[in-house]
Write a structure and sequence with these properties.
675 residues; FAD/NAD(P)-binding domain; Rossmann fold; binds flavin-adenine dinucleotide; 3 domains; binds iron/sulfur cluster; eight-stranded parallel β-barrel; TIM Barrel; alpha/beta; binds NADP nicotinamide-adenine-dinucleotide phosphate; five-stranded parallel sheet
Length: 675
């Protein structure tokens, strides 16, 4: 008997059966653009072997003008068909099924050739689209249907027609982007003509025994988005036009509401999909922030959907389904929804990977093979760098001893998880605990390791992390000047007015911690919806509450400062920085850049501006919290070197600048692969 009867139940689609209710949602990984089709195939095949019921590829352009960026992968020629065949064959050999997503970006395309319903530039792309005429619209429909036929020829089991997230088809649906007065605009009947026609023509092109998923935007989260009545009308029409499955899209890319970031509650939008249940006869998939089998099972068991889409969780662990089936869900590497190695990479033009699993999309390059000669390995520091080297080395057959002076493994992850909105870090540390115990690693906690303790090991790895940087501000030795560690470990109370020195990742997180009191909105869907101004699309177009965001008042008055004369938070995560900035703004945090720290005294923190140290100002503050960056803790590494040893130094102990868990884990894993 499984713990996940709904999740692991097969799904009969008539002409074919999916072995379970897990869909790997579409992700643009950048792999197809490498043209290394063996690498693409291995990425998908690993997930097929891991038991996913159905996978959807990253978006493939149906034509040049529809590509998300110039050179975006697509299925344009016969040669493309042969390349895609390498992928589909390998997936089928792995026991999986795969559908190709057809993604026409419309006005979101990063190219001067982009096209749309009306010539209205999007706020997130540089080119105004060309308004399509009747002939142009017919060409787009034809190209999408042709791409679907080619997908069938390439061995795919189906296609997903991308109709959500504000892409081309979505742009025809709403008056926000469709100002036409011909038969493709005006009434809703006219505005939905294009998506419906596309599904009809795709069905005609692929025949009956082929899966067509239509991804439908169920809550646009933009002004003048669809009402839920319009969503229902479209779903019924799409079903009648020949779709086999309807998948859920949540929010346009230009929406100012977070939809998949870590601060979004788990399964935050399953209720939206549930509203469609019973209105169509074909299966309905729900999506967004579903990252464990427990959450997925709950969503299905409560009737929110027939199937769940998980995308990033399958980057974090290719064996997600197999582990759930084996009753070892606690071994599934958790997606913490950080976006740091997946979406942030995509939007920086880099190949995706995963913070917790650096092998994701690097399956053919980062190979973990059994060690030829097992060795004894000492690892000092059980933060993410030390944990990943220890786990990978043990996996390869080395005998690993892992030391930490703390009572619990995790290092700075134990500080990260105190931040409201970063609750997923709890699960990450829990997972590491399970894996360390499973791997037979000799774990020695509560031990401050010195150079004398490390005799007799073949290899020594130093992962001792970082120390807070001393900013050298006159008066910083006062009792009311705290380090971020004092605050986040609860050793000190910051009082009601706080000045935070340093607006990097930690300064932002500490500010977030300080302005919140009580329950984190991330753990309560109604609270979170109120905070971001989300409502039922049956009540308001696009699901945007007319009264806007209504956050709780700030628990403290916080001023966040930095010396750089740039917008604070500019260097935070590519796809998540705006959320951190918006969240602090909603809590009335004053963010001040370009400051000099003059001194701290009874009045608070004295600052001035510019090289001439002008415009002196006092930030009244009961406490000042120092988040001024970090420096490597190399004391143990240096002591070993002084004794003639040659330890490996990784993570923050190696380089503290721009350190994050992604780099720490990647470096640890790659070192262990070579030991
Ligand atoms: P650490 O995590 O610092 O681990 C070092 C370990 O070594 C510690 O456990 C320490 O006890 C142990 N140690 C040191 N000396 C000795 C000794 N002599 N003997 C025994 N044990 C010793 N990163 C992200 O990627 N994403 C985030 O969202 C994020 N959020 C963060 C939020 C906060 C509030 C903080 C503080 C950090 C955050 N980080 C985040 C940064 C991330 O946690 C660090 O980059 C990462 O933990 C560094 O890993 P590390 O293994 O090098 O060092
Ligand atoms: P950081 O991002 O490098 O920020 C350090 C801050 O301290 C900057 O604002 C810097 O700005 C200031 N500073 C530097 N030297 C100073 C000095 N001598 N005096 C006063 N201020 C000084 O480092 P961090 O905030 O400590 O974060 C550490 C790492 O953890 C980061 O690299 C980050 O990637 C990671 N992290 C990531 C996240 C995430 O969400 N992804 C969250 C938290 C932490 P000025 O020099 O302009 O003053
Ligand atoms: Fe999830 Fe972060 Fe990995 Fe992306 S990088 S898959 S969000 S854990």
């Amino acid at each position: 008997m499984t713990d996940y009867p709904h999740l692991l139940a097969p799904l009969d689609l008539g002409h074919t059966t999916l072995k379970n209710r897990v869909l790997m949602g579409s992700m643009h990984t950048g792999l197809e653009e490498t043209k290394d089709w063996n690498r693409v195939a291995e990425f998908y095949a690993a997930r097929a072997r891991g038991g996913v019921g159905l996978m959807v590829t990253g978006g493939m352009a149906p034509n040049r003008e529809g590509g998300v960026f110039p050179g975006a992968a697509g299925l344009f020629t016969d040669k493309d068909i042969a390349n895609h065949r390498i992928v589909t064959d390998r997936v089928h050999d792995g026991g999986g099924k795969i559908a190709m997503q057809i993604l026409h970006a419309g006005r979101y395309a990063y190219g001067p050739e982009c096209v749309s319903a009306s010539p209205i530039k999007s706020p997130i792309s540089p080119f105004p689209p060309k308004e399509l005429d009747e002939e142009g619209i017919e060409k787009q429909i034809h190209d999408i249907a042709t791409a679907a036929a080619r997908a069938r020829e390439a061995g795919y089991d189906g296609v997903e027609v991308m109709g959500s997230e504000g892409y081309f088809l979505n742009q025809f649906l709403v008056t926000h982007t469709n100002k036409r007065t011909d038969r493709w605009g005006g009434s809703y009947e006219n505005r939905m003509r294009l998506p419906v026609e596309v599904v009809k023509r795709v069905r005609e092109a692929v025949g009956d025994d082929f899966i067509i998923i239509y991804r439908l935007s169920m809550i646009d989260l933009i002004p003048n988005g669809s009402t839920f009545d319009e969503v229902l009308q479209l779903a019924k029409k799409v079903e009648a036009a020949g779709a086999s499955i309807i998948n859920t899209g949540i929010g346009w890319h230009e929406a100012r509401v977070p939809t998949i970031a870590t601060s979004v509650p788990r399964a935050a939008f399953a209720w939206v999909t549930q509203k469609l249940m019973g209105h169509v006869a074909i299966p309905v998939i729900t999506s967004n922030r579903i990252n464990t089998p427990e959450v997925a099972e709950q969503v299905l068991a409560t009737g929110c959907a027939d199937m769940v889409s998980m995308a990033r969780p399958l980057l974090a662990d290719a064996d997600f389904v197999a582990k759930a089936m084996a009753g070892r869900a606690d071994r599934i590497a958790p997606c913490i929804a950080c976006n740091q190695a997946c979406l942030d990479h995509t939007f920086s033009g880099k190949i995706s990977s995963c913070l917790v699993n650096p092998r994701a999309c690097h399956e053919t390059e980062l190979v973990i093979a059994p060690a030829t000669t097992p060795r004894t390995v000492a690892v000092v520091g059980a933060g993410p760098a030390g944990l990943s080297v220890a786990l990978t080395a043990a996996d390869r057959g080395h005998k690993v001893t892992l030391f930490d002076r703390a009572a619990r493994i995790g290092g700075q992850l134990n500080l990260a998880r105190q931040i409201p909105g970063k609750e997923e870090f709890h699960g990450l540390v829990d997972w590491y605990e399970v894996m360390v115990a499973d791997a037979g690693i000799d774990l020695r906690l509560g031990m401050q390791v010195g150079a004398d303790d490390l005799g007799g090991f073949d290899e020594i790895v130093i992962a001792t992390g970082v120390l807070p940087r001393d900013p050298g501000i006159p008066g910083q030795d006062r009792a009311n000047v705290l380090s971020y560690i004092d605050v986040l470990t609860g050793k000190a109370d910051a009082g009601e007015t706080v000045a935070v020195v340093g607006a990097g990742g930690i300064g932002f997180d500490v500010s977030e911690y300080l302005v919140h009191a009580g329950q984190s909105p991330t753990t309560d869907i109604p609270d979170w919806m109120r905070e971001w101004g989300v409502t039922d699309p049956e009540q308001a177009r696009g699901g945007l509450a007319p009264e806007g965001p209504r956050p709780e008042g700030p628990a403290r008055q916080v001023t966040l400062l930095q010396r750089k004369a740039e917008r604070p938070g500019k260097r935070l995560g590519k796809t998540t920085g705006w959320i951190h900035r918006a969240a602090l703004k909603m809590k009335a945090v004053e963010m001040v850049g370009g400051v000099n720290y003059e001194r701290i005294d009874d009045e608070g923190l004295h600052i001035s501006f510019g090289e001439a140290r002008e415009n002196p100002r006092v930030i009244p503050a009961q406490s000042v919290v120092l988040c001024a960056g970090q420096v490597p803790d190399r004391s143990l590494a240096d002591a070993l070197v002084a004794r003639g040893k040659t330890p490996h130094v990784i993570g923050g102990a190696d380089v503290a600048a721009e350190l994050d868990a992604k780099r720490a884990i990647d470096q640890g894993t790659r070192l262990a692969a070579t030991l």
